[in-house]
Design a protein that fits this description.
276 residues; mainly beta; Jelly Rolls; 2 domains; ten-stranded antiparallel sheet; 1 helix; 11% helix; globular; disordered N terminus
C-alpha cells in the first residue's frame, strides 16, 4: 500500500508539473491576460434575422421607439436606414443590447452606405460608432441627446485627407491617455483611412475600468485607461446619473445612428477576466 501511494503521488506530481508548464507558457504568451479567458466562448449578439435582444433609444423619443424603422435587418446585417425620414431633426439614435458587460472582447464588421441626411451635423458624415460602458438605456431621458458612455468611433474617407477610424469619443465621460487625463472629447487612432463602402473588421477589448484597446483589421490602433463619468457633450441627462469621477466598470453596448447610413454584421462577444 505504501508503494502504491508513493507512485500515485509521484504520478500526480508529474501531472501537476505538466499543467504548470502549460499555465506558465500560456501566461507568458498572453502577458497580463488571464489564461482562463481561453475557456470563455464567443457569443453572437445578433441572430441575423431580427432585432431580438436589442432596443432603440432616439433623441426626442422614448426608450423602445425605433423611429422610422431606422434600425432594421437587411440580408443578415443590422442596417441604419433613413428612407422613412423627411428630416433628421437631431434624432440621434442608439440600438442597445439587452444586458451590460464588464470585461470582454467585442468583434464586429461595418461599412457605410451612400445614404446621408442633409440636415444632420456635418461631423456625422461617414461617421458612426459603437457605444460601450453606457448607462442603462432605460435611464436615458426623452430629450437626452447622447448616452453617458464611451465610443469606439468609426469614420471613413470623406475626400479631405487622412481620416482614421477606431477612434475614442467620450459623451459625458473621460479617459486617461498616456497616463494622464485627456481633456479631448475624441482621441484619434493610428489607423489607415478606409473607403466608405469597404467592410472593416473592428475589435474592442475592455478590461472593466482599467484598460481599453481598439483594433482595426487586426491591428492595435489605440489604447487608453480608466474610463469614468465626467466631461461634457452629453445633454439633457438625469443629474442623478452623471456622477463625475465615478469609474465605469461595466455598461451597455449600443450601435449608433446619427444621420449616416451604415451596416453592421458578425457582432460577437467573449467575456474575459480582468487584468491580474
Amino acid at each position: 500500500m505504501a508503494t502504491t501511494t508513493i507512485k500515485m503521488k509521484n504520478h500526480k506530481a508529474r501531472k501537476l508539473s505538466g499543467r504548470g508548464i502549460q499555465v506558465l507558457a500560456c501566461c507568458l504568451f498572453y502577458g497580463l491576460v488571464s489564461c482562463e479567458n481561453q475557456k470563455n466562448e464567443w457569443q453572437s449578439l445578433f441572430n441575423g434575422k431580427d432585432l431580438e435582444g436589442w432596443a432603440a433609444k432616439f433623441h426626442h423619443h422614448k426608450y423602445g421607439d425605433n423611429y422610422g424603422d431606422t434600425f432594421r435587418v437587411v440580408d443578415e446585417k443590422i442596417q441604419v436606414n433613413y428612407d422613412k425620414y423627411t428630416k433628421f431633426n437631431n434624432r440621434f439614435g442608439h440600438l442597445f443590447y439587452k444586458e451590460p458587460f464588464s470585461s470582454y472582447h467585442l468583434k464586429f464588421e461595418y461599412r457605410f452606405t451612400d445614404q446621408w441626411m442633409d440636415d444632420a451635423p456635418g461631423y456625422a458624415y461617414r461617421n458612426s460608432g459603437i457605444m460601450f460602458h453606457s448607462q442603462d438605456p432605460k435611464t436615458i431621458l426623452k430629450e437626452q441627446d447622447w448616452p453617458i458612455s464611451v465610443e469606439y468611433q468609426m469614420l471613413a474617407d470623406a475626400g479631405e485627407g487622412a481620416r482614421p477610424t477606431g477612434n475614442m469619443c467620450s459623451p459625458g465621460t473621460e479617459v486617461f491617455y498616456k497616463g494622464e487625463m485627456d481633456p479631448r472629447h475624441c482621441i484619434s487612432s493610428s489607423s489607415d483611412t478606409y473607403a466608405w463602402d469597404e467592410w472593416v473588421k473592428a475589435d474592442l477589448i475592455v478590461y472593466g475600468d482599467s484598460l481599453v484597446i481598439h483594433k482595426v483589421n487586426g491591428k492595435t490602433v489605440l489604447e487608453y485607461t480608466r474610463p469614468q463619468i465626467g466631461g461634457g457633450v452629453a445633454n439633457g441627462y438625469d443629474l442623478a446619473i452623471k456622477i463625475d469621477g465615478k469609474a465605469l466598470t461595466k455598461g451597455y453596448i449600443a450601435l449608433q445612428a446619427e444621420g449616416q447610413g451604415v451596416e453592421f454584421k458578425n457582432i460577437k462577444i467573449r467575456k474575459i477576466n480582468d487584468i491580474q
